[in-house]
Amino acid sequence: MAVERLNSEEVHPEFPENGSVAPENTSSGVLREYDESVAPYLGGFGKYQKQLILLTWIPALFIGYSQNSDSLLLAQPGYTCKSATVTLGNTTINPVSYVNTTNDSRTAYIHGNDSSNDINKADCLCFDRKYNLSIGLVQNVVTKWNLVCDSTWKVHIAKFSLLVGLIFGYLVMGVLADWFGRQPVLIVSVFFILIFGLTVALSVNVTMFSTLRFFEGFCLAGIILTLYIMRIEMCDPGNRFMVTMVASFIALLGQLLLPGLAALCRDWQILQAVIICPFILMISFICIFPESLRWLLATQQYEKAKSLILQINKKNRVDSKTDVKGIMPELDRELTKKPKKTCIVKVVGTRNLWKNILVLCVNSLTGFGIHHCFARSMMKNKWENTTVSHNSDIHNMMLSNFYADYYTMAGIAVASCLAMCPAVGFMGRRGGLLMFMILTALASLLQLGFLNLNETALLIYYFFLFPIVIVTVDPVIGKYNLHHDTDLKETINRKFSIAFSIIGMFSSHAVGSLSIFFCAEITPTVIRGGGLGLVLASAGFGMLTAPIMELHNQKGYFLHHVIFACCTLICIICILLLPESRHQNLPETISDGEGYMRQPLLPPKKGGEQPLLLTNSELKDYSGIHETPVHRAASSESNMANVVKSS
């Protein structure tokens, strides 16, 4: 076993250790052993459970739409000033056309020889703009309310609103899911996301849009969280990771299909309505989707659990006479117990559990936070020195810019999820997380320090890449390039930066996703919603750094990257403190979660040290070694004294 559990007899509730918690007064029988006793009695991972898992996969497509809608609804457009000239003081400036080449910079196509300072001033003085939104939409939020120039900060606030709503939603809905159940929180979230999501499409100004987007994100967090927990709690240990990864791939499919959906809708209000309306299908979950049986048993709601067990047995066509471990008789004996629910604040009094959750929170924060640093670096180097020579090329440049950036990000996410499957299957949760975090740290450190040493990069080029160029391309071209050291240094620097950015985005996405899954496995059922909500909220804080940097016009970007790079080094050490949860049963109570003990990262060597120095065949009977003559004489005298006394 990769994980040891503390024996129940080793815990003394009357003398609790410092920082430990006394075991809960729950049933100590087979009802607590869900994966070993209850699940086999229900037919294991049967047909009914597979149907429910399939139902949780379908909304993942709609979730993928909603999570990535900001990239279209709030995309910065290119524009051309319709006026023939723009008057700036006593001077007249020719019209200017702006094209977005990255998220934080623009390439300007200028008629004439105007200075850059005059261009920036003319940008705000031109009130008659013709927007060129080449993202499949004719109009979005930015073009409808002219959120450019001095109003650009409102776009960043609108981006904040959805992320902040997600963060608060994870924290609140996680606690409610532990207290009221997974199904009620899911249904309530579906109802309200329909209300707020459709109302967003009817917004009359950007303030109303941002406010409603906050509540939309709040409800979306409830849907994401409860569906994630339900998948984990319905699966056996061997299928948990596979089921979660399939849901991730479906969400990524939604991200890939979103630009095509926008091209069909043409208007942002129609797109918003089309994204939200499919959630209507989830209202049927009221009748189809049951409450989590694992949560019902963990919280001692045995009456509801009994009816649900009978329903599942009927669906799976399991004979109730095969109850070898006596689940139903014990369930009948426990019906008199009152429900006992636990809040996430109980984790403060634990000894190991709070450390595990804290480590995973820092990991998810670092993974999703540094992801933006790599993405910005890649886009900046990719579109660096891009120029527009003709006004007719503006549309084509914007089109290629958006789709190239969008599908590059999505493609890296897909590749990251594909790499996670064999890595986690071979090395386990902790080993896979450690490997991806090391890759992230190396990519960030190399990008921050190594790329500034242009001479070193040039030396590597000469020794490794340049000979290949001479042999495979043309010696004349190679010799000619030697005389252009400055341009060569810049080219090599840019290519190395793009390469390390891709590696960093690849590994950081895996770190964030695996941290969330890891937390769902090691957090007990009674507080799984709250624990998973904390890790998801930490991931949201990491994502929130992107619009914060954009709001400050990327000031302090280098320090931002340095801080997250330092966090990756800390996380590498902290990951070693985590237990391994592969092929392990989910903990049900806080005491079960405390029983997860850290094991060495590498498995023990075969044929290692034996617990005994001698084998059983070599052991001899030394029971009489203490029977010396003096000892025998003393024993005989004591026996005679006892005989005299008795007579």
TrEMBL record:
Residue stretches spanning the membrane: 157-177, 184-204, 210-229, 241-264, 270-289, 357-379, 406-426, 433-453, 459-477, 498-520, 526-546, 558-578
Record's compositionally biased regions (Basic and acidic residues): 1-15
Membrane-topology descriptor: Multi-pass membrane protein
Key words, A-Z: Membrane, Transmembrane, Transmembrane helix
Region of interest (Disordered), ranges: 1-27
Signal peptide (UniProt feature, chain positions): none
Locations listed in the record: Membrane
SUPFAM superfamilies: MFS general substrate transporter (SSF103473)
Protein name in UniProt: Solute carrier family 22 member 23-like isoform X1
